[in-house]
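INTERNAL AUDIT FORM
Audit reference: QA-55
Scope: verify that the stored structure record matches its stored sequence.
Auditor: D.O.
Record contents follow.
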Amino acid sequence: MWFRNLQIYRITGGNITPDNLEPALSQHALQPCLQMEMQSRGWLPPRNEQPDFVLAFGQHWLIALGVEKKLLPAAVINQHAQTRIASIEQMQGYKAGKKQVRDIKEATIVELLPRAFAQRHKTYAWIDAVNNRLILDTASANKAEEFIDALVKTVPGITLAPLDTQLSPSTAMTRWLTGDEPPSIFSVDRDCELQGMSDEKETIKYTCHLLDAEEIGRHTRAGKKAIRLAMTWDGKISFVLHDNLQLRRIAPQDILKESPESAEELFVSDFTIMSGELSRLITDIVAALDGEDRG
């Protein structure tokens, strides 16, 4: 498996080991939604084939949060509610008031909820115990917040903070696009996005386009800054760096094994390569941005 989007946190407190993490997560396993619940969340084994809630490979550990949600579209609620409202208005001989309409909609939800389908999704995280980092595989701020909230409530004493750097990604990307060379281990690719700093946030996007320093310099002198930039690290991994230090569109370049291994061997091989390479990539990005800001 390979993470495709990275949101990176620094583990700032707590004694975390696979031995104490496993029972903590298993005690808060995901349970199916009850009849009248819209949502349930809890921990799941990262691999369906294995019962363990923590998959440990040396100092790199994989965990997964599951969320089950009832699917009850607003259009379905409104359709059933309108039928009820029309019937009640006919019986009482006058139009339903706002409070009555609200009460009818709430009663409709209560009636439909037990029949709603439930959908599950997993959010994966990898703990890099060597560098005290927790890395989430999601581009969604809401899913990241949900994961961190669940982990803090599940594991006593753990504290986390978003990874921050001395030099902002936006400042560095803008410099790299207008003449400064990035560290030699990185190369700039052909996608970027520039955004103005006014309230209108005027935006220019380049896709599969030669990024000319002089042309982009005209935009930056006019008050725009880089907010995302496609890059390649060490010729091995391409990604898009965002101004909030997220890495998206992670794509390994010819470093995965192609062999008739079993599913288990392939999983272990992929995770071992991924955790090793991405750990070094993150460290090199932090170094390119003048190191961590722990203030």
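Auditor finding: record pair retrieved intact. The first helix runs from residue 18 to 26.
Action required: none
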